[in-house]
Every structure is written in structure tokens, then in C-alpha cells.
Specification:
The complex is a heterodimer of chains A (about 190) and B (about 350).
Chain A (H helix, E strand, L loop, with lengths): L7 H25 L7 E2 L10 E2 L4 H12 L14 H12 L7 H4 L24 E2 L12 E4 L5 E8 L10 E9 L6 H6 L1
Parallel strand pairs in A: 1-3
Antiparallel strand pairs in A: 2-6, 4-5, 5-6
Chain B lengths: L1 H12 L1 E9 L11 E5 L7 H4 L9 H20 L4 E5 L6 H4 L11 H13 L1 H7 L7 E2 L20 E4 L8 E4 L3 H4 L6 H11 L7 H15 L14 E4 L2 E3 L3 H8 L6 E3 L13 H15 L5 E4 L6 E5 L5 E5 L6 E4 L2 E4 L2 E6 L2 E8 L4
Parallel strand pairs in B: 2-3, 3-4, 6-10, 7-13, 9-11, 10-12
Antiparallel strand pairs in B: 1-8, 1-16, 2-15, 5-6, 11-12, 13-14, 15-16
Helix pairs in contact in B: 1-3, 3-6, 8-9
Classes of the chains: A alpha+beta (about 190), B alpha/beta (about 350).
Chain lengths: ~190, ~350
């Protein structure tokens, strides 16, 4: 090591080696350190829809679309996501169809942590089951499914219940709540700098 | 209240057998302490994983019915200002059998989350009732489901509970029971101290201590696959079981009589294995009593899958109420039944019941 420091070339090598060691250390440490559990939170009243029964009624559809148009803030009187009806039209139709409202249509058959191909039109791949909903007295007896929209603005949380029959479709999806994410991730700003 | 619980609620579920009964004012558990129901080890795993093991949770239909009756009982009792507390004594799920890959991983892995989700979905009726907001079941962490503490849904699971709340301090505690294996006499002092601290009433253990406890627990069971059995390779010999009839005189006769099927410490006729953990529980209670100036008289556990009440009157008074399990088998009075047991405490009286399908 002492010899390496005597020339510029060797100094460069030393620098690279040190950098590599530091990187290995950081990566190793970050991989070994306990990771916080991924969970979803239901935001304050102004930032959530409230639980809406499925299949969607006309009233339910309007409630969802108004919330989305306003960008997820109920008290607003502004268009923030004016094209929300267009973006979510297909999803709203599916959520209005009782035949679709089974867990097997929402997630991948082979991996219960991943969404189905159908849902991938609107949501990111990973499903989160752990929810913190401080509006309730206790956690839901059966953990819900939380899906994040592709734009990253909202969590769509779906409550489940036992199916009416023994058809192999898994649990029934009974209610939905849409809530703002805990914090905005405006990655586009970084690109425009 | 015992009689009402039995007659109006429990006997609606199925046939009920009395496994053990201890009525003694030295329990120091007055009626004001509330009515406590203890559901021992369930060891739920998903339906696909069940195929890999000789034993899975017994009588799921009875378990669901029990939970429903406990909800009804709690609601009815609350109208009379009687508090009902329901506990699940740990090993609610069997994560060691569900996801063996997580056995060695001390963190909330995706496999853990998926495994828990699968178990809950496959047993939705039972899980929904046991986690019903109306029941407010208090969960203990067992060795087979210790990792549930990583999940937001189980944030209120604990390693021990001390009760009832009173100006004199608690007279009892409930824990899963696996910590007593660390207190057995041949264990190193460091491990004993850790176990005492972790299930003691002093403070909630921190992440590091929980990690150490988990490591010791996992080490004790390393290499076991549980495909044959978990605790009882042959039916647990509960000695006696008394079927409770539907006739009122019969019920009164059984339940107003003397203590039933109590194992006494120091009785040379009782094999040492039948008294397992009684001395450890008593030693632990003495430590806690000394530290907090309490007067704990009994302990409620699961873990062993061996329903029994053990009494030590040799030098003072201490009782161990082992509530059994809902997995593997038990045998008594010439009857062999799939374990489906609960413990009940109220008004200086502890009982263990075995439930079976009606007219089996």
C-alpha cells in the first residue's frame, strides 16, 4: 500500500481500490441491515375517498372520478388530473362488473405478490398487503390488497372477503379506497434541471 | 358465569369434555378480574402445505364456531359490565412449516409476507372470526410464529401478558411457553437471563433482544422438519376427560364438584415429563414477584400440546394451566380425540375444556 502511494498511477489505483472497498462495504451493509417493512397508509380525510362498495354504483364511479380529477384532494375545486376519466375508464368498468371482482383477476396466478396482466394497465407490479388505516379501530381481519397506480400518485386499496361460492376464484373483492401516497416523488424535476 | 359460558355458548359448538378444573381462592383471581378465555396452539398452514405434514389444525369448523360463540359471549357479558378477554396463546400460524426458507432469516422477507397471506386466505372463516374487531383477541407470539411481529397487522402481539390489572398487582401471567425451555436447569445462565428479561414485565424488548431470543429459539429446533409431529408423537395422556352432558343436573354435578384431574408437584406417581415447565414457571414467577413486589399465583401457557393443570402446594401455592392445542391428539378416560382445547379463568377457577364434534 505504501509503495502504491508513490506514483500518480499508483495513487489512481489506490483511489479506485479504496472506492471499490467503500462501495462493497456500503452495499454489504445496506443489504444486511434490517429493512423496514413495506406498508401503505390511509391518508387524512381530505386525501382519501373513503370506502366505496364494489361493484361500483353510479354514485361510486362519480366519487372516484371526482377524487382523481381533483388530484386526490377532496376540498379542491380544480382540475389537477383532467384526463383521469380517460385513464381509468377501463378499470372503472372492471370494478363495476361483479364477475371480475375476485382476487384471482387482480393478481398473478403464480405469485400472489404481483398483479395480473389485466391490472398492469393501471398499476405497478408489486402488491402490498400491509396497511395502516388509523381510521379504523383494528387492522382488517384479512389484509387488503394495495396497488399503486402507474403514475405513482395513488394507492388503491381493495378489501377482500370470503367468496359466495366455492368457485376457484379466490376471495371476493368487496370495497375500494383510494388515497394519496405519503409523499410525492416528482422525479421529472430532476430530469429538467 | 362459568356455567353460562359452558351451557349457553360452548356447548352450542359441540360436545364438551372437562379435562381439568382447579377452584381455589389462593389463585387470587376474583371475579372483578374479568373472564378470560385462552385458545392455545393452532399451527395454521396453507392448504397446499398441509399435504406435507402428518398433522394440521384439528376441527377447523369447531374453531370457527368457538370464535363466533366467544364474540357472542363477550357482547352479552359486556351488557352486564363483565369484561371478557380472549387470548391466542401463540403458534397461531406455523411459519416454520409454511415457509421453512424463512427459518434462518431474521427479517420480514417477501416469503414471510406471502406465507402469512396464503394462510389467512386459506382459513378466511377462522381468521376473520379470531381477528374480529368485536373479539379483540390478544395474540401471543409463539416459537413457530415469532416472525409475525414484523408485520403491521400483528403489531399488538406480545411475548407475555400479566393480569388482572389491580392495585395489588397481577396474580397471573400468560405466555406461549417456549421460553421455559430456556429456563430449564441445564441451560447456560446467559440464555436464562435473556429469557427472563424477554418475557418479564420490566420493559418491552428492543429489536436486538428480540433478535437474540429468536436466534436461541431457532437454534433449539434446527434440523427438525416437523413432518411427523411437532410436540406429541403419540396422543398426549391427559389421564382423565369427563364428557359434560346436556342435562342440567349432570352439568351441575360435574362442575360443582371437587377439583378435577390436577397433577400435584411432588407426587411420586406422576412422571417428571407430565410436570414439564411447572418448576420453570414457578421459578420465573418468584423472580418476577421479587422484582416487582407482586404475588403471582399461576401461569397460563400453550406450546406443549399437553392440556393439564399442575399444582404446587409444597411450599406456598403455584399453578400452571397448560391449555393444550388444536393439533395432534389427546387421550384420557379411554377416549382418544383430536386436540381442540381451550382454557378459561374466572372467579378463582381455572378450567380446561376439550371440544369435539357433536355425537361423534
Amino acid at each position: 500500500m505504501i509503495r502504491l502511494c508513490r506514483t500518480n498511477k499508483n495513487s489512481k489505483e489506490l483511489f479506485t481500490a479504496t472506492l471499490l472497498i467503500a462501495l462493497v462495504f456500503i452495499l454489504t451493509y445496506s443489504a444486511c441491515a434490517p429493512k423496514p417493512a413495506a406498508f401503505v397508509v390511509v391518508r387524512e380525510g381530505d386525501f382519501r375517498t373513503g370506502w366505496i362498495d364494489l361493484p361500483l354504483s353510479e354514485n361510486g364511479k362519480e366519487k372516484i372520478l371526482t377524487f382523481l380529477i381533483k388530484g386526490g384532494v377532496n376540498s379542491r375545486g380544480d382540475y389537477v388530473i383532467p384526463n383521469a376519466p380517460k385513464i381509468y375508464d377501463g378499470l372503472i368498468k372492471l370494478l363495476s362488473d361483479p364477475a371480475f371482482l375476485y382476487i384471482s383477476n387482480f393478481r398473478d396466478k403464480n405469485n400472489i405478490d404481483k398483479i395480473s396482466k389485466t391490472m398492469s394497465k393501471w398499476f405497478k407490479p408489486k402488491i402490498i398487503h400491509q396497511l395502516i388505516d388509523a381510521t379504523k379501530d383494528r387492522p382488517s381481519p384479512i389484509p387488503p390488497l394495495a396497488l399503486r397506480d402507474l403514475q405513482g400518485n395513488f394507492w388503491w386499496i381493495f378489501l377482500t372477503d370470503r367468496p359466495d361460492n366455492s368457485a376457484d376464484k379466490g376471495l371476493k373483492i368487496t370495497q375500494v379506497l383510494i388515497t394519496l401516497v405519503p409523499a410525492q416523488e416528482m422525479k421529472q424535476y430532476a430530469k429538467t434541471k | 358465569m362459568h356455567l353460562r359460558f359452558l351451557k349457553d355458548y360452548l356447548m352450542k359448538v359441540g360436545d364438551v369434555y372437562l379435562v381439568s378444573r382447579l377452584k381455589d381462592s389462593r389463585l387470587q383471581y376474583p371475579s372483578s378480574g374479568g373472564f378470560r378465555v385462552f385458545i392455545p396452539d393452532l399451527h395454521l398452514i396453507d392448504k397446499e402445505r398441509e399435504q406435507h405434514f402428518k398433522y394440521s389444525t384439528n376441527n377447523l369448523d369447531l374453531l370457527g364456531k368457538c370464535a363466533q360463540e366467544f364474540i357472542n359471549f363477550k357482547q352479552d357479558a359486556s351488557r352486564e359490565n363483565i369484561d371478557v378477554y380472549v387470548y391466542q396463546l401463540g403458534d397461531f400460524m406455523d411459519l416454520w412449516r409454511e415457509i421453512p426458507v424463512s427459518f434462518s432469516k431474521n427479517k420480514a422477507t417477501d416469503e414471510l409476507k406471502k406465507g402469512v397471506q396464503k394462510i389467512m386466505e386459506d382459513h378466511i372463516d377462522q381468521v376473520k372470526l379470531l381477528r374480529d374487531p368485536g373479539l379483540k383477541t390478544q395474540f401471543l407470539l409463539g416459537n413457530h410464529d415469532f416472525d409475525l411481529h414484523y408485520l403491521t397487522d400483528f403489531v399488538d402481539s406480545e411475548l407475555s401478558y400479566y393480569f388482572p390489572i389491580s392495585s395489588k398487582g397481577p396474580s397471573a401471567f400468560a405466555l406461549h411457553g417456549d421460553a421455559f425451555s430456556m429456563l430449564e436447569r441445564n441451560m447456560p445462565a446467559g440464555i436464562k437471563n435473556l429469557a427472563v428479561y424477554i418475557v418479564g414485565p420490566g420493559a418491552k424488548p428492543d429489536t436486538k433482544q428480540l433478535g437474540q431470543f429468536r436466534k436461541e429459539t431457532v437454534n433449539a429446533y434446527k434440523g427438525k422438519d416437523f413432518s411427523g409431529y411437532i410436540q406429541q408423537p403419540t396422543p398426549a395422556a391427559v389421564s382423565r376427560m369427563m364428557k359434560i352432558g346436556t342435562d342440567q343436573a349432570d352439568i351441575d354435578g360435574v362442575l360443582n364438584g371437587a377439583n378435577f384431574n390436577i397433577k400435584h408437584m411432588g407426587d411420586p406417581a406422576i412422571p417428571a415429563c407430565d410436570l414439564r415447565y411447572a418448576q420453570e414457571a414457578e421459578d420465573f414467577a418468584m423472580l418476577v414477584n421479587k422484582e416487582h413486589s407482586w404475588d403471582i399465583r399461576f401461569s397460563v401457557i400453550g406450546h406443549t400440546h399437553y392440556a393439564r393443570i399442575i399444582l404446587d402446594e409444597r411450599d406456598g401455592f403455584f399453578a400452571l394451566v397448560d391449555c393444550g392445542a388444536w393439533i395432534e391428539y389427546c387421550q384420557g378416560s379411554g377416549i382418544t380425540l383430536p386436540c381442540a382445547q381451550i382454557g378459561v379463568i374466572y372467579d378463582n377457577e381455572a378450567r380446561i375444556y376439550q371440544i369435539a364434534s357433536k355425537n361423534r
